[in-house]
Each structure stands twice: as C-alpha cells, then as structure tokens.
Design brief:
about 280 residues; alpha/beta; TIM Barrel; six-stranded parallel β-sheet; two-stranded parallel ribbon; 10 strands; about 40% helix
Length: about 280
C-alpha cells in the first residue's frame, strides 16, 4: 500500500472513531424529537365533547355483540367509511376465543368504537316479563354487573334488552319509567339509552327489513320534524346479525355513504349523547 492510501485510510478511521465517541458522549446532532415520536394520550371513553348547533348527530348503536360474522362485517364497514359506532354487548354471546377477541377489539378501538352494556343474559334469555318483575330486580341488576365485569366495559352506559327506555340523573322516560330495576340502575349512576329509530330485522331472516332509501328518508324526516329524544341527535338501533351477508354489509356501507354526503351529519359514540354527558 502506498503512502497516500495509508494516510487516507487513517483519516477515515479517525473520523469513524470520532463519530462513535460523539454519539456515546451524547453530543450527536440528532435531536430526541427526530428519533422518537411524541406520545399522544389515547382518549378516554366518556370524555365530553362540545356540540355544534349547526350539525346533526347520528349515533349508530348495534345490539347483541358479538355475533360474527355480522359484528366483523359491521366493524369493517364503519372503519372503511370512517364513522364512529357503539356496540352493546351481551356476555353469554362471548363464547370461545374468536368472540373474545372481537370484544377485546371493540374495547380497544375507542374512540372509533365504544363497548357498552346490554346485560349478560339478554334479559334472562329473552324472558322479559321475568327480567323486569319486581321480585327479580336484584337478580337483573346483578346480571348487568356481571356483564360489565366479564367484558371489561369501562362506561356506565346500558341499553335494556327488549325495552326502549331512557334514564339519566333521575329523569326516566319510556316503556318502563316506574320499573324498580331501572330506578336502581339510575340511582347507581348508570345512563340508560333507548333509541329513536330502528333498522328492523326481516321476519325469520338475518336481513334488514327496510331498504337503504327508506331508512334515509325516515331519518331525515325525524330530524326535520324534531321527533328525536334530543334535539339534533338521533339514535339508530340495529343488530350485528342483520349484516352477515355481503349484500347486506354493502347496503350498510351505502347507507353511511349517503348520510356522509350531508355535511351536517356527524357520527358519534353514545358516550357523547347529550343525556349521557350530563353529570
């Protein structure tokens, strides 16, 4: 090796050593902000929002989760359309690891999705007269508490199985406003959410009864007539199982796509419903 090459190689070695020494001594030119992104705190369910009086708030609430593949399809549609939704879950539907993962994903995907309470047994397996009877008040209350614990539900928001009643801070209205169970849940600080409009299930079929255009028409008419429980807010009820087949999942996607064309429409989770936000 000639003298010129030896000098050049030595110089490169010195530069490399200096660079390593500089990094080890904390004198690198790289700033901490360049090497790591700032950690942003994840929103907490129940954090209040500020309403815009020029907007129409739409609360998509889907009952009886987990019901795959319907739950999975609905999640995929909501995610693709970029809208928020609430899933009211039933504990005894969570059977096996797949359904548990679905519930885990709903709980962890806030603020896009909110997991809420629809009882463990779905009203003692749809025996509503028994579930809401005065003699079963404590058992029915414990059914909700069991569901909350089992599914790790982080909000005190309930939808009653088979019952369209609203309750918040002692203000109870709906089908069973004098019911002992509802009064007990309300006194314990739970917010009970009913619905303004339902996308019904076709008789004897896992399919939506109303067409997309009919649902859009009904929703707009309710907004225009002011026939919702709260002004400028509408709670839509449907069920995961209605959208198991691709053709019906496509209908759900088209429904949301049409609603999004009206810039007044805002999609929110039910923890941001006016009566739920009230302290």
């Amino acid at each position: 090796m000639n003298l010129q090459k030896m000098i050049a190689n030595t110089a490169l070695g010195v530069l490399a050593l200096a660079a390593v020494t500089s990094c080890n001594n904390g004198t690198s030119n790289t700033k901490p902000a360049d090497s790591a992104k700032a950690v942003v705190a994840k929103p907490v369910p129940g954090t209040p929002i500020k309403y815009d009086s020029t907007k129409r708030y739409i609360y998509l609430t889907w009952d009886d989760s987990p019901q795959p593949p319907g739950t999975v399809n609905c999640k995929a549609v909501f995610r693709a359309e970029g809208v928020k939704a609430t899933f009211f879950a039933v504990g005894f539907n969570q059977v096996g690891p797949w359904k548990k993962r679905i519930i885990d994903s709903l709980r962890n995907d806030y603020p896009q999705f909110l997991l809420a309470n629809h009882s463990f047994s779905h009203g003692f397996n749809d025996k509503y007269a028994k579930f809401y009877s005065a003699t079963m008040t404590d058992s029915a209350y414990n059914d909700f508490m069991k569901n909350e614990k089992l599914l790790g539900i982080g909000v005190k928001i309930i939808r009653l199985p088979g019952n369209n009643t609203w309750a918040s801070n002692g203000n109870i209205q709906g089908q069973k406003s004098d019911n002992a169970l509802i009064k007990k849940l309300d006194a314990a600080g739970y917010k009970i959410v009913g619905w303004d409009l339902e996308w019904h299930q076709e008789a004897h079929m896992k399919a939506p009864h109303e067409s997309v255009n009919e649902m859009i028409k009904q929703m707009n008419q309710m907004f225009d007539d002011g026939r919702t429980n709260q002004p400028n807010a509408i709670v839509l009820l449907s069920h995961d199982r209605l959208f198991e087949k691709k053709q019906f999942a496509d209908s759900l996607s088209r429904f949301i796509s049409i609603l999004k064309q009206d810039k007044r429409n805002v999609f929110e989770t039910i923890d941001h419903y006016p009566s739920v936000q009230q302290k």
